């Protein structure tokens, strides 16, 4: 897919089947799953939106931006010897001011469909500030959640294939294997997202979405 380098494409191609084989989603399935997901989000005011052109395969995507507050010591500068590892212990309440010892933290998650592999793909960014684009989270920081390395080798920075700006990306290498285990799910997008969300700055999926899978 767009945004992967040649080395990553070669690694991801190992074990991946054609985009219409087992463990894949068609564009129509992705769009149907995404719209059902969006309807549930709207019911809960959870903040997800569908952007782009639904009439062109791969050109529409789900997006959600959230402002949190995190412990200040988790976003100290790289030169601060007393700084802890990046810690995503989030308190979501954008209408309140940070308390003592807290700092603002913004995350943005995009769920796309890969036309090359026929699987959903998660792109995301995080900014340790009040404003998107300022003080972004690095790849190394994004791999560290609650002080533990994810060891998710497929996480790297890539160019967003639709809007053309740098994002962190969970490569689609493992997605076909995950989707094969979800053949009975009524919403494979939700089932897949529940498996990979933790690796994307600890994205939380509310339990109401899982009703879509039954």
What is the fold's blueprint, element by element?
Layout: H1 6-13, H2 27-44, E1 49-52, E2 60-71, E3 102-114, E4 119-127, H3 139-142, E5 144-145, E6 148-149, E7 155-159, E8 166-170, H4 175-180, H5 188-196
Antiparallel strand pairs: 1-2, 2-3, 3-4, 4-8, 5-6, 7-8
GO cellular component, one term: cytosol
InterPro entries: Atg3/Atg10
GO biological process, one term: protein modification by small protein conjugation
Write out key terms for the chains shown.
six-stranded antiparallel beta sheet; 8 strands; globular; disordered N terminus
Would you kindly provide a brief summary of this structure?
21% of the residues lie in helices and 24% in strands. The protein is α+β, with helices and mostly antiparallel strands and 214 residues long. The protein starts with 5 loop residues before the first helix and ends in an 18-residue tail after the last helix.
What does this structure look like?
With 214 residues, this protein is an alpha+beta fold. It contains 5 helices and 8 strands, in the order ααββββαββββαα. The strands form 2 sheets. The chain has a 6-stranded antiparallel β-sheet. A two-stranded antiparallel sheet has the order 5-6. The chain starts with 5 loop residues before the first helix and ends in an 18-residue tail after the last helix. The model is unreliable at 1-18 and 76-84 (pLDDT under 50).
